[in-house]
Design brief:
The chain is an all-alpha fold. It has helices at residues 2-12, 16-59, 63-70, 77-95, 118-137, 140-172, 177-234.
Amino acid sequence: MIGHITLLSHILSTNIVVKLVLLILLFFSLTSWAIIFYKFRYLNKAKKENKEFLDIFWDSKKLDYVFSAAKSFNYSPIAFMFKAAYKELVNIKKSSGNPQTRLIPEEYNNNNAKENNLHPIERVLKQSQITAIAKLEMSLPFLATTGSTSPFIGLFGTVWGIMTSFESIQKAGTAGLAVVAPGIADSLIATAAGLFAAIPAVIAYNYYTNKVRVLVNETDDFAYEFISIVERQILKK
C-alpha cells in the first residue's frame, strides 16, 4: 500500500510534459485492454458459431432450413457469407423460373441454368467474405499502433525527464542525488508506462491475428465447398 502511494505521489509530482505523456499512454493502455477483452469474446463466439453452423449446413439437405438457422448466428463469418450467397441463389432461381432451394440433385430441373450463373454467387461470396473479415479484424490495427508507438511516446517522456535532470544540475551547480532524482524518476516512470501499454497490445495483436487467420481460412474453405455444391447439384443439369 505504501509503495502504491509512493508511486502515485511520484506520478503526481512529475512535470507537465511527463504528465501529458502519461495521460496519452493511459488512453492507449485503457483502450487496448478494452479491445483485448472485446476481441477475446467476439473471436471465441465467431469460432464457436462457425462450428455450430457448419454442423447444421452439412447435416441438412435443405438450403431454406439452413438459411433460417443461419439467422441466429450473429458472430459467424461463414453464416454471414451463406446468407448473402443464399439470397443471390434465390434470385437466380427466380429469374430462371425455378425457385426450388433443396440440396438434392434430383429435385432440380435446371434447364435454364448456365455456368455463368455461378459468377454472381462467387462475387457475392467474395464481397461478403471481405465484409466478414473486416469485422474480424476491426480494432486490431489500434493494438498494432499501440504496440509500435507507446515505447516511443514513453521514450519521449524519458528524454524529457533526463533533460529536466540536466537543467536541475545546471541551476544547482551540483550533481547530487537530490538534484537529479526527480528528473530520473520522471524518465523511469515514462519508460515503464510506455512498456506497460505496449507489451500487452503486441501480445494480443499477435494472438488475435493468428485467430483471425484461422477463421479466414475457414471462410475460404466454405466458399470453395459452397460453390462446388452449387455447381454440382443446383446449377448443373
